[in-house]
Sequence to fold (263 residues):
Amino acid sequence: MKKAFFITLLVLATCSCMAQMKFPEGKTSAVILCYDDGLQATRSIVEPQLDRYNFKGTFFLIGGSLRTEDVAVWKAMARRGHELANHTLFHNYWTGRGEANANYRSLENYTKKDLLQEYEIMNTMLNAMDGREQHCAAYPWGQAFVGKDKEDFTKDLIAAGAVNYGRMGEGADPITDPEKLDPGKVPCFPYLEKYGGADVMIAQIDKIQKAGGVGVLLFHGVGADYIKISAEEHRRILDYLAAHPDIWVAPMSEVLDYVTGKY
Fold:
């Protein structure tokens, strides 16, 4: 009897130590929709689909890919409630990936100071479009390290102040305890072409909903470009979210500020 009593107390103590997720307006979970690389064709497909349900997305832009004619479009999207976010100036890679970056822009040839300066410059570019002082950031290919010794730069990036949250490239588990969330290492679940459609992403939404947590879904191409999901399959995901009104769909900063008590 005493043993059962103490086990019960232990379970209750463990549960009380885990901070409970809170969501607005009776919502029970949250999904953040992210779109990487500022792809022009994808943008023209995604925004009308999001608008159909008044969903707002988070769009990660690459400074070196921005064209003059894009600026007015991104400004207008920010005014309509979509979030612009920081995907670095040059989308730097590690040389071993065999990508087309010039060698001097390869991450092993950078210092923390070099990379943080590029994030700061990109933040200034975004500020000129949306007026915000801080922006979410995403690490190209989820590489959260820099230099030949592969130093983790995420804590320095958050401490510098221009970036409020840094998003990794993967992570299947929903965020369920805001007190354990590392703002520099926000997990996400990326769409891959091998999934062949919406079903895997919908299953992930189910997982987020059942956990009563927050999940970040990542897309690149929608109906065009690369790492592509068709426009029809992307719309299936939005239809599913709309059919579950207890799921809060909102930009990354808004959701994470709310659940961590920064709102």
The CA atoms of residues 80 and 88 lie 23 Å apart.
